[in-house]
User: Which sequence fits this backbone?
């Protein structure tokens, strides 16, 4: 169980921080510098794919099917982000 959780935390971290995925998100139109001019719906999806807590929760829920494990993936992903940014 722990291996699966840590794997999902790593997947979430890479989904947010990996350069190829950032470029792909920009290609889809989710550019940070255009955030203020986005519609509310596009802002919602922008936050969903750039926030460690949001993405971690949904990735965790999709792979585990457990609400508790999804919350753990979400919080651990945010902690990993904070540790990596030191």
Assistant:
């Amino acid at each position: 169980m722990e291996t699966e959780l840590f794997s999902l935390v790593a997947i979430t971290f890479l989904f947010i921080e990996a350069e190829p995925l950032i470029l792909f998100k920009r290609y889809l139109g989710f550019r940070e510098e255009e955030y203020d001019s986005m519609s509310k719906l596009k802002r919602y999806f922008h936050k969903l794919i750039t926030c460690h807590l949001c993405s971690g929760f949904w990735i965790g829920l999709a792979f585990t099917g457990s609400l508790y494990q999804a919350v753990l993936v979400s919080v651990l992903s945010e902690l990993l982000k904070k540790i990596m940014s030191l």
Observations:
- Helices lie at 2-17, 19-27, 40-50, 52-64, 67-84.
- The radius of gyration is 13 Å.
- The CA atoms of residues 25 and 84 lie 22 Å apart.
